[in-house]
């Protein structure tokens, strides 16, 4: 079994600085008759820091297209932020859990033999019941001695 302790995911809030958005207005394409040819109603929004481009030419009004394009841009930025947060959490989880291979084991609890083995310090105790009740002093003391020995060796 592997255990990871991770922070709770936060809700991502999107605020778009108007200076970061480049807006281009152009003529729509497709069906629409004379309005399409005479009035520039299509909107292209470019979010400069991320390079995300949104084009909207669905509506006949430039204002409606701008509002719709801004909603799409916010949705894409939100999705990007959520993916970044999830990647950060996943990275933290992988650091803590590792691969879960047998080679990464820390401690083995063998109930039929009433045995606990800590693989970090090669300590085997035949006191499984006591350890399960929380009497970990012997394990902890052995780990502390090993850590102090490594620290002294590094000096």
List keywords for this structure.
about 160 residues; alpha+beta; three-stranded antiparallel sheet; 4 helices; about 20% strand
Task: Give a written overview of the molecule.
By secondary structure, the chain is an alpha+beta fold. The protein has 4 helices and 6 strands. The chain has helices at residues 34-38, 62-97, 128-132, 137-154; strands at 21-26, 42-47, 52-56, 107-110, 115-118, 123-125. Strands 1-2-3 form a 3-stranded antiparallel sheet, with helices on one face. A 3-stranded antiparallel sheet has the order 4-5-6, with no helix packed on it. The radius of gyration is 30 Å and the shape is rod-shaped. It starts with 20 loop residues before the first strand and ends with a helix.
Q: Assess the beta-strand content as a share of residues.
A: 15-25%
Report the structural category.
Answer: alpha+beta
Q: Describe the largest sheet.
A: 3 strands, antiparallel
Rounded Rg: 30 Å
- Helices and strands, in N-to-C order? EHEEHEEEHH
Q: Number of DSSP helices?
A: 4
Number of strands: 6
Distance between the termini: 35 Å
Oligomer: single chain
Tell me the layout of helices and strands.
Blueprint: E1 21-26, H1 34-38, E2 42-47, E3 52-56, H2 62-97, E4 107-110, E5 115-118, E6 123-125, H3 128-132, H4 137-154
Antiparallel strand pairs: 1-2, 2-3, 4-5, 5-6
Write a concise synopsis of the structure shown.
By secondary structure, this protein is α+β, with helices and mostly antiparallel strands.
